[in-house]
Amino acid sequence: MKTPSPRLVIVSARAPFVRTSNGIARAPGGLISALLPLMRRSRGTWIATGADRDPCDASEVPFRVRALSLPSEIRAAWYAGASNGALWPLAHGFLEVCRFRAEQARAYLEVCRAAADAAAEHAPRHAVVWVHDYQLALVPALLRARRPDLTIGFFWHIPWPAAESLRVLPWAAELVEGILGADLVGLHVPRYVRAFHDTLDELGVAYMSEGSSIVVPKGERTARIETWPIGVDVEGWASLGRDENVAAEAERIRSDLGGGRVLVSVDRMDYAKGIVERLEAFERLLEQSSEARERVTLVQIGVPSRETVAAYRELRQRIEATVGRIQGRFGSPRRKPVHLFARTLDATELAAYYLAADAAIVTPKRDGMNLVAFEYVATRPRPNGRLLLSTFAGAADVLSEAHLVNPYDEDGLASAIADVALAPETASDSARMAALKTRVSRLSVETWASGFLARLEQVTEERVPARERQMRLAASAPVSRAR
Ligand code: GDG
Q1: pTM
Q2: Is the CB of 342 under 6 A from ligand 1?
Q3: Which one-letter DSSP state was computed for residue 162?
Q4: Is the beta carbon of 455 within 6 A of some atom in ligand 1?
Q5: Bridge partners, 376 (sequence order)
Q6: Percent of the chain residues past pLDDT 90, beyond the cut
Q7: Residue 129: what pLDDT?
């Protein structure tokens, strides 16, 4: 793997470390695990806007972590307001949930400005800055205005909305201009790049198409929009899947659940993940099939999320009420058809559930990619089990051998769950899982992160005149030797 630029700066809402009951720990998730080794080698700076100060200041790592100190009302208006009360529902097609308030838009700008200021302060000359996600989309242009020497990348981790939906955002043009401050903009799958095309048409922004990428001229430079599908820590999940203790725990789970068929779903409790619709489809299956009533158990791991936002608190209540109703209708002292864990499990426990499950039910109503689908496949040591996947997850564009389903089709969803839960596995299922394992292995999160950064440097080099390139090389030589 190419050694990353010695001057890498990451800007994200989440910090790489969190405080736990056992002290400071690495924040969960594949993105953090992919970026940490790059940061360790580059000895750069990680700027986090949404984090508590302590975990960062206390962490002993070979790079700097800067947690921005923001007034709590600004933080709330930016995070619960503009980011998760407006941009998130907009990008996922939940227009009726969107609330646009001028004061929240101002807070969003203020946080992006603070992040851009911090990046401008910490980035050495000609450094590479990689900004992450919809909470910080104005940072690229704000940073570009302060520091034209920087190479700036931006990754939007959620779906890019249809042009028609984006029109409801009062500051849509500013959002897009903010993103176009980057040299390279990454989206997960080609359909999001096509939607970005439509947005540029709608806003009257001139661009060229180069194969599947978009090139937007911006004075002396260009902004490129490309597909960069994320993956997971394939070897990490595979080694958990091979671990004897994890396998023993998976056997225990299966036997505790009565030895029948086991389905697993893992989501943050978010309305975009389609949890209530999935539970209702499972309820319909239990109504219709005595075999399902006797033999099938759904384990729903639902990590509480964004509980400062009203829509998320209401969702949690609906999920709990739906599980309660199913239990009341179909449960008995000996058997619970649905198990809900409304908490975070550690990765080992999660892997045991992936191993224990005959099928993973991944049916979001909309999802940028969905890493759970990848993790279920990566964890399995053998090509068995089934993946039921929503066509509205970006992952469906990549994992085409999964059993695909439209989660809005109530009967279709119930019958797809019946198929993966009850039909005996065949040679065709095993061939599908083997093909999925190959795809997941090719798309590791490490390849994604290092590939994106290499491409970012490449697209920037293409526009740097030769003379300046030589000057840059000379300027960076002592840093390279010191590494
Ligand atoms: C956003 C986009 C895109 C969940 N419960 C536990 C746990 N998790 C981990 C999973 C997985 C991650 O959380 C969830 O990732 P997803 O991709 O499914 O969803 P989002 O959080 O919405 O992520 C999404 C992603 O960004 C990357 O670009 O794919 O579309 O919405 O890794 O394992 N991890 C542990 N315990 C849990 O209880 N340890």
Answers
A1: 0.93
A2: no
A3: P
A4: no
A5: none
A6: 80
A7: 97
